[in-house]
């Protein structure tokens, strides 16, 4: 490995760790965030669990819990190939767009529940106001998220036509 390749590898690892830290700061579990960022940088065909552990410097148990979580939220998939003894993990293509769009019903349900909280505290103007504003925000997200994903898909298609 050349010094340039080694430097590029360190930059990539640092960037992946920074991205994982940002996700963790907004509530995403730390180890799944690290595994997901490692898989974004994975070569074609992904990584095995042992390769992930080695890359991240963590135990097999840590990787196992992280990949189980990421599979549950449908961000990665386990791929078995007849020519490989060990299963590999890879990011599911376009998964983020589906996750964002699929949250719209959740935002709507959350808005309804928050309105119920406000209604139960109708004598407290401040509580009612907070609940109404939060419910309005979640309804806005429910309405806009599918539109934003559609807009992203159009931009991505345009970019592909110009590449």
From TrEMBL:
It comes from the Bacteria. Residues 27-85 form the HTH marR-type domain. Keywords: DNA-binding, Transcription, Transcription regulation. GO terms for molecular function: DNA binding; DNA-binding transcription factor activity. InterPro entries: HTH-GbsR_regulator (IPR052362), HTH_MarR-typ (IPR000835), WH-like_DNA-bd_sf (IPR036388), WH_DNA-bd_sf (IPR036390). It holds the Pfam family MarR_2. This is MarR family transcriptional regulator.
């Amino acid at each position: 490995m050349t010094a340039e390749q080694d430097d590029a590898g360190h930059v990539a690892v640092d960037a992946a760790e920074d991205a994982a830290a940002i996700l963790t700061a907004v509530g995403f579990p730390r180890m799944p965030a690290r595994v997901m960022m490692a898989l974004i940088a994975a070569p074609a065909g992904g990584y095995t669990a042992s390769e992930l552990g080695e890359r991240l410097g963590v135990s097999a148990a840590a990787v196992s819990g992280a990949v189980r979580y990421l599979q549950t939220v449908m961000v990665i998939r386990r791929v078995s190939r007849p020519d490989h003894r060990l299963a590999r993990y890879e990011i599911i293509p376009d998964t983020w767009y589906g996750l964002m769009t699929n949250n719209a019903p959740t935002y709507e349900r959350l808005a309804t529940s928050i309105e119920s909280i406000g209604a139960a505290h109708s004598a407290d103007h401040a509580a009612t106001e907070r609940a109404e504003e939060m419910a309005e925000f979640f309804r806005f997200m429910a309405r806009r998220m599918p539109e934003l994903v559609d807009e992203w898909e159009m931009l991505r298609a345009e970019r592909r036509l110009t590449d």
